[in-house]
Design goal:
about 300 residues; alpha/beta; Rossmann fold; Alpha-Beta Plaits; 2 domains; four-stranded antiparallel beta sheet; 11 helices; 14 strands
Length: about 300
């Protein structure tokens, strides 16, 4: 059973379709990565799932109950970690957590006890009495995460939880998130770091211009590009077009083309040596050809035509 099911979600702002017929689900003990460039519709989708925005059409179902039929029930089940820090800089780490525990409906005793647990789990016990304004970026992100966990949510929405922090702090947060998943929490995760999605997510959805273009496991997405191999050709390509090469489009799918590089996958189950022979015989001066395994970035480029951070 899924803890979150999104069906035909639609939201428009004037003539702009921010989210257009998006459907997916997140299961217990699963991290589902929702990836897309800036303005693709990720944050709008999370805002509708969490009740900050009401969809124009479609439905959000949390633990088998439509969100808007009982919003309070849904909110008791989910925790939300927004992209912007939702903490009070003048308060201490402990005061922030206890405040958000009270907001989540915990008694003062429960909030204190749970805060102590979370400070230890987030390795912040030694800074618990310090004002958050004295914390590093990574520590603020950990407190921000902790604020969403006071009521032990079964469903967690994480909107770019590691943005703007150093690599070590990011690793600490990723390990904490892995442990949450291992405990059975269902996690919807958005990020601008493709390597995070590759490491964390059991399934990935790629969204652009408000539409979900593809979803699946990393292997399933890689298989869209020819399974286990791509060919990277380096040459002077500024004045050339693959469409003008005889039979090229029948044998290869273009993933990306720049003035100096062409990334392609083979169409059909062809031997790599045959593919290399074809590429070396192209009507351009080939400087190098490399065989590689498709990455999530290659899938992303093929679907959207642009880098994730654009």
């Amino acid at each position: 059973m899924s803890l979150l099911r999104v069906q035909g979600l639609f939201k428009a702002f004037a003539a702009i379709r921010a989210v257009d017929s998006v459907s997916f689900e997140v299961r217990p003990g699963e991290i589902y990565g929702l990836l897309g460039p800036n303005g693709a519709g990720k944050t709008t989708t999370i805002s509708m799932i969490s009740g900050l925005l009401k969809p124009d059409a479609g439905e959000v179902i949390v633990a088998s109950t439509p969100f808007w039929s009982d919003p309070q029930k849904a909110k008791r089940i989910m925790g939300v970690v927004p992209q912007e820090l939702a903490i009070y800089e003048e308060l201490t780490g402990r005061e922030n957590l206890e405040f958000w525990g009270a907001m989540a409906g915990l008694s003062s005793g429960e909030a204190r006890s749970r805060t102590t647990e979370l400070l230890e789990a987030l390795t912040l016990t030694d800074r618990a009495k310090d004002a958050v304004k004295t914390y590093s970026g990574g520590m603020k992100r950990r407190i921000n995460l902790g604020c969403a966990l006071l009521h032990r949510p079964k469903l967690l929405l994480l909107d770019e939880p590691t943005v703007g922090i150093d690599p070590q702090a990011r690793l600490n947060i990723l390990e904490f998130i892995r442990n949450l998943r291992a405990s059975g929490t269902a996690i919807l995760y958005t990020t601008h770091y493709l390597e995070e999605a590759e490491l964390l997510c059991q399934r990935i959805g790629i969204i652009d211009h408000g539409r979900l273009l593809a979803e699946g496991s990393l292997k399933e997405l890689q298989d869209r590009l020819g399974g286990d191999r791509l060919f990277v050709l380096e040459a002077e390509l500024k004045e050339t077009s693959p469409d003008s090469w005889d039979g090229f489009r029948q044998r290869f799918r273009v993933i990306q083309k720049t003035e100096r590089q062409l990334v392609v996958s083979a169409i059909g189950p062809r031997d790599p040596s045959e593919c290399l022979k074809d590429l070396l015989g192209l009507p351009v001066r080939v400087e190098n050809v490399m065989l590689k395994r498709p990455s999530l970035n290659d899938v992303f480029l093929q679907l959207t035509g642009r880098e994730l951070r654009e």
